[in-house]
Amino acid sequence: MDNALSTPADIEALANQFTAAADAIHARAREDKSGDSAAVRALFDEELILRQYANAMLADAAGHVVAGLATSQAALVALTEDAAAKMARIGRIADGLMLAARMAALAGAVASGNPAAILKTGESLYHHVRP
Amino acid sequence: MRLTKLLLLAFILLLQACSATGPVSLAHVRDFADASTKLAAYGELSNRFRDTYQREAPYLTPSADRIARESDAKRKAAHADFVASQKALALYMQTLAALAGEGTYDLTAQLDELGAGLQANTSSGLEQRHITAYTGLTRLLTRVIASSYQNRSVETMVRDGDEHVQVLLDGMQTLLRLYAKTHENEKRTVLGLFEVELPLSTKPQDRMLVTLARVHYMSKVNEYRLIDRRFDLAREGLEKIAAGHKTLRSRLETLRGDEVRDFLRNLVRDLRVVRDGLNQS
User: Fold this and answer.
1) Centroid of chain to Cα B157
2) Residues B255, B23: contact at Cβ < 8 Å?
3) pLDDT tens string B212-253
4) What is the DSSP letter of B100?
5) Contact predicate B227/B48, CB 8 Å
6) CA angle, corner B230, sides to B227 and B232, nearest 5?
7) Which ipTM value was assigned to this complex?
8) Residue A52 and residue B175: Cβ atoms within 8 Å?
9) CA distance between the termini of chain A
10) Which of A62, A101, A105 lies nearest to residue B175, judging by beta carbons?
C-alpha cells in the first residue's frame, strides 16, 4: 500500500471513503426502531472513530499540499524583494537629490553673504542629514 | 543651443517610452492589490482548522480521542506553513500596489528644491530663464524615465509572478476544501451525539439535561451555519484574486488609450512652458 497513497488527492479520496462509511452508519443509527440503546450507542461510537480516521487522512493531505507550495512561495518572496530593492533605489535617488538641492542652496546663501538666508538653509540641511 | 537639443531628446525619449511595451494601467494594478484583504478569511479558517481538537474533544470517546490527538499534532505542525502561503501572497500584492503607486516614482518635489537651490546661485552668471528651463526639462525627463521605469517594473513583477500566484492560490483552494471536510466531520460528531442521545433520554429526571442539550445543539447549529458561509466567502475571495491577476497578466500587452493620451497632453504642455521660458528675453 506504500505507493497507493502518494498524492494528496489519493489521501483525500481515502478520507472521503471513511467519511462516507461514517455517514452510512449514522443513517443506520437514526433509523433504528429496535429501542436497543446500547446497540445504537455502539454504532455511534464506531461512527466517531471513522470520522477521526477521515480527519487524520485530511490532515496528512494538507501537510502534503503545503509542502508542494514551497517553491512558488519562495519565488514570490524573491520577486517581492526585488521590487522592494527597486523602490529603495528610487528612494535613495530622491534622498540624494534632496541633499544636493539643500547643499546647493547653502552654497548660494553663503555666496550671497546674507546671514538670515545662511542660517535658514543651514538649518534645513542639518535637519535633513539628522532627521 | 544646448537646451534646444535637450528638448529634442525629451521628445525622442517620450516617443520611445510610448512605443515600447505599452503601459499597464497602474490604477488597475492598485485596485487588484487592494484585494489582498480577501485573503483574511483563508487565514481565519486555517486557524480554525488548527484548533479543531480543542472544540471536539469533549464529545469524543477515549478510543476516538486517541486518534484525534494525533491529528491535532499534525495540524499544529503544518499550521505555520498554511499561513506562510497567505503571508507571501499578501506581501506580493501589497508590494505590487506600492510599486504601481502614484507617489512612488514622483521626484518632482526633490527637483523643485534643486531648482530653488540653483536660483540662490544666480550670482554664478546663470540667467533666471536658463534655470527655469533646466529644472523644467529635468523634471520632464525624470517623469518620462521614471514612468517607463515604473511601468517596466510593474510589468516584470506581474509577468514573472503570475505562475506562482496561481500555484499558491490553487494550493490554498485545496487546503480550504480539506478544512471544509474536516469541519463537516467535526459538525457531524458534535451534532450527531445529540441526535443519538436526545431520543434516548426520555426519563422525567432527564428533563433539565435534555433542555440544556437542546439549547446547546441549536447554538452549535447556528455556529456551523456561519462557518459554512465563511468557507464560501473564502473560496470566492481566492477565485477573485486568481482571476484578477490573470487579467493583469493578459493586459500587459494592451495599450491603455486614455492614459497615454493624458500623459502625452501633459508632457507637450510642459515642453511648451520650457520652450516659452527659453524664448523670453
Assistant:
1) 13
2) yes
3) 999 999 999 999 999 999 999 999 999 989 988 888 888 776
4) T
5) yes
6) 120
7) 0.76
8) no
9) 66
10) A62
